Structure of NitT/TauT family transport system ATP-binding protein:
Amino acid sequence: MLEISNLTHTYGSGPSAHHAIDGLSLSVAEGELLCIVGPSGCGKSTLLRSIAGLIKPTGGQIAIGGRTVTKTPDDLAVVFQDYSRSLFPWMTVADNVAMPLRRRTMDKARRRAAAEEALESVGLAGAGKKYPFQLSGGMQQRVSIARALAYRPTLMLMDEPFGSVDAQTREDLEDLVLQVRGHHTMTIVLITHDIDESVYVGDRVVVLSKAPAHVVGDLKVDLPAP
Ligand code: ADP
Ligand code: ADP
């Protein structure tokens, strides 16, 4: 469902040019949970922003469902590492989760019900009336994940989604992703610098070189379901 062919990304030009991605090719099948792992600064976020249509590749092609990405696709949700900057502080948790659903043709009551259901699925039933600042970091990240899930994306991109939480919360959130994935059919691309996490969460792990990033390893993981 996702095809990346010979992608390059260069920031700047001339002597100050910085090559972040160089000749990266990758296909992701529908329903796959692919983890992309690589050293810090190797170009992972650049790759994810390119897939999301947030930056334009300087070379090569990205296609989702056979269509070249030129802008952010409608059926895409992104979870960033920095939950504190992704939730709107002036909105309640429920309103944060329901907000993107305005893009769907859903009336207010259905949006609210979908938000509640998504919050429940991340273990935050009853937290809808709170504001983000009233929740711990791990809980705020659950809200970000709930928001992505409520949208029912075809493709979910996660950029170091557990990078800013403590070790226990991290394990809980890893299990949460595995759990929600059992309930919804979607393709997930999750970026991490943690090889253990990638093997635990992913059904396939793609390893990137240091910058400029290209694929140096691609392995199937076959762990029993938790
Ligand atoms: P990662 O996510 O793997 O840590 P990034 O994709 O954020 O890596 O960055 C890859 C490289 O590109 C890094 O060397 C980084 O400094 C550089 N880079 C990232 N964003 C920009 C930018 N907007 N302008 C110039 N260089 C950038
Ligand atoms: P459909 O998917 O055919 O619209 P459903 O009854 O499965 O019918 O869902 C109704 C709406 O509620 C969906 O559009 C979806 O956005 C939302 N929804 C359902 N289940 C969830 C869930 N677990 N998390 C978030 N939103 C959900």
In short: The longest helix spans residues 167-183. The mean pLDDT is 92. The chain has seven helices and ten strands. Residues 114, 117-118, 121, 149-150, 152 surround adenosine-5'-diphosphate (ligand 2) (CB under 6 Å).
